[in-house]
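Input structure tokens:
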């Protein structure tokens, strides 16, 4: 950034001569006030001098209107203590703080916020106009000549020559650089030329008015002071992004920030800090209306530094791998070591957890397997006990039913003869009594087979075609109430013959048909398909398929256990007896789920025609 060194030429030198004289007078008055404020006072033998650092880039009005009266007040209220000041650059002030060479310092809120983060400085009081919020008391004003109609927004200022008082002045230059950054521009590359007067002549207003600079930046209220001092017309300049505040008539172009701060340092005596704070807050307002007050919110300044990537956040702009490594390499070493230790610990812990988890999983699986096996054995034992009980009851029932069935057959035959003598041969009566007699004979045969089982007297197997077994089973099933509304589609092979007990095999097929009918109880279209397949290798199968609701995999597995039924009111005896019969005939029963319904497959060994002929 270059200094403002160009001279401003004007045909009218009267305002300039007047301002030059006034500026010289102000310098003399400032020097005189400083001599009064900083004059030698004898120090108490028991108390060391109190040193107050002053930021040198503060504007001259501060030294006259604030610093001088403040020092006089401190000395008046603390007659036994010596107060002295040191006007330092920002670098010098920072070094003095690091070396504990000062007890307090007065600076703009930007430098204070930086030190609050770096050194732990605390805000004792902030300077503001009486009645205003100390945290919102200063800002920047950006102005151009009124005839610069093309300059309306921040974007219009890009590439223009700008003039301000000092590049370190927070309230003017730094604040508006923040607004440039917020608008999405890079403040370091925004302006064409940057000129600074360093509070010397020609000043900012003169530079803008003469055209040496397009844009001027001052602290809020300084423009109004310059216009009054130079007797400029009120419409000579136009403020960019003009804003006003209810408690201040000064125009501004940026948000309000805290003003000059009187700050204490962490190592300063707390009693001294308390006494100083009470003295400052009790001080009467200066002739310009400013007072010391409490401002406890510096978040706006901190956010401004973040936007500008400067001050405590300068690393955001300057950070690169080399700078990062140079600054944090030892921390990186420590962090890497910690990460390696943590990784090794994590791997070890995870390994142990995996081992323990696997062992626990295996133990739980073994426990579940044993529990399930025990449960299945208990269930099988219970089912076998039920089957034994039912078997004993069946023998008892078979024994008791033999005589009634014989009587039923005799009465049916006698009734048929009696009715034929009285009414002659009536086909309906004859057929009905014949069916009754036939069913009674069949029931008697079943009872006799049950009695033979009890005596271990098995009948001799005979050849029989599967077609005959299927047709007889369908005929017997069709006489039951379960067959109502059911359409049976048999598909049989007349050439397949098996060796066995026809009655037992018919009972098995009838039982399967009844089970299929029960599965389709709530269906509207009830269909049962019977297919007879020659599987080769002297084996054939009979498949009975229904279109009922089907069964789950769990229920399908349970069908392989004895005395198991899928019907709510079933005992599971029919399927258990059917399995026993088929297994005695050298075959087996299987189950297969369909997309809709269930297929039961009865597999039996077959005999060749020659064997069938020899049996005949």
């Amino acid at each position: 950034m270059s200094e403002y060194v160009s001279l401003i030429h004007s045909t009218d030198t009267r305002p300039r001569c007047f301002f030059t004289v006034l500026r010289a007078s102000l310098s003399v008055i400032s020097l005189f006030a400083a001599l009064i404020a900083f004059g030698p006072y004898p120090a108490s033998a028991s108390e060391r001098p109190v040193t107050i650092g002053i930021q040198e880039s503060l504007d001259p009005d501060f030294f006259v209107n604030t610093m001088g009266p403040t020092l006089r007040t401190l000395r008046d209220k603390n007659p036994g203590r010596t107060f002295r000041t040191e006007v330092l650059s920002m670098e010098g002030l920072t070094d003095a703080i690091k070396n504990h060479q000062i007890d307090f310092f007065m600076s703009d809120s930007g430098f204070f916020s930086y030190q609050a983060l770096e050194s732990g400085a605390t805000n004792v009081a902030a300077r503001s106009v009486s009645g205003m919020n100390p945290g919102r008391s200063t800002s920047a004003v950006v102005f151009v000549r009124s005839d610069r109609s093309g300059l309306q927004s921040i974007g219009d200022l890009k590439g223009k020559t700008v003039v301000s008082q000092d590049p370190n002045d927070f309230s003017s230059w730094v604040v508006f650089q923040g607004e440039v950054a917020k608008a999405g521009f890079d403040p370091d590359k925004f302006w064409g030329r940057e000129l600074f007067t360093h509070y010397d002549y020609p000043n900012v207003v003169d530079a803008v008015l003469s055209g040496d600079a397009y844009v001027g930046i001052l602290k809020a209220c300084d423009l109004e002071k310059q216009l009054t001092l130079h007797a400029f017309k009120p419409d000579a300049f136009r403020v960019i992004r003009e804003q006003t505040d209810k408690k201040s008539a000064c125009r501004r172009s940026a948000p309000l920030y805290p003003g000059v701060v009187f700050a204490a340092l962490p190592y300063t005596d707390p009693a001294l800090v308390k006494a100083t704070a009470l003295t400052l807050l009790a001080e009467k307002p200066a002739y310009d209306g400013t007072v010391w007050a409490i401002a406890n919110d510096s978040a706006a300044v901190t956010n401004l530094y973040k936007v500008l990537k400067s001050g405590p956040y300068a690393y955001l702009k300057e950070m690169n791998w080399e700078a990062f490594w140079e600054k944090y390499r030892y921390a990186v070493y420590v962090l890497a070591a910690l990460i390696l230790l943590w990784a090794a610990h994590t791997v070890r812990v995870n390994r142990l957890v995996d081992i323990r988890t696997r062992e626990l999983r295996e133990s739980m699986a073994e426990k579940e397997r044993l529990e399930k096996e025990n449960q299945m054995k208990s269930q099988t034992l219970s089912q076998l006990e039920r089957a034994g009980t039912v078997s004993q009851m069946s023998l008892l029932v078979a024994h008791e039913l033999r005589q009634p069935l014989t009587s039923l057959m005799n009465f049916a035959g006698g009734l048929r003869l009696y009715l034929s003598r009285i009414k002659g041969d009536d086909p309906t009566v004859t057929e009905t009594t014949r069916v009754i007699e036939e069913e009674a004979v069949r029931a008697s045969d079943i009872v006799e087979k049950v009695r033979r089982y009890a005596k271990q007297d098995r009948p001799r197997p005979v050849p029989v075609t599967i077609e005959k077994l299927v047709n007889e089973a369908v005929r017997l099933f069709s006489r039951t109430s379960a067959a109502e509304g059911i359409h049976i589609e048999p598909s049989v092979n007349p050439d397949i013959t098996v060796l066995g007990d026809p009655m037992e095999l018919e009972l098995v097929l009838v039982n399967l048909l009844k089970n299929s009918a029960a599965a389709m109880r709530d269906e509207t279209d009830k269909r049962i398909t019977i297919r007879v397949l020659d599987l080769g290798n002297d084996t054939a199968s009979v498949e009975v398929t229904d279109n009922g609701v089907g069964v789950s995999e769990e229920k399908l597995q349970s069908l392989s256990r004895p005395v198991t039924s899928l019907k709510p009111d079933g005992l599971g005896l029919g399927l258990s007896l059917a399995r026993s019969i088929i297994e005695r005939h050298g075959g087996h029963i299987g189950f297969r789920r369909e997309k809709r319904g269930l297929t039961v497959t009865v597999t039996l060994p077959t005999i060749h025609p020659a064997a069938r002929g020899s049996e005949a």
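Residues 1-46 have pLDDT under 50 and may be disordered. DSSP finds 17 helices and 20 strands in the chain.
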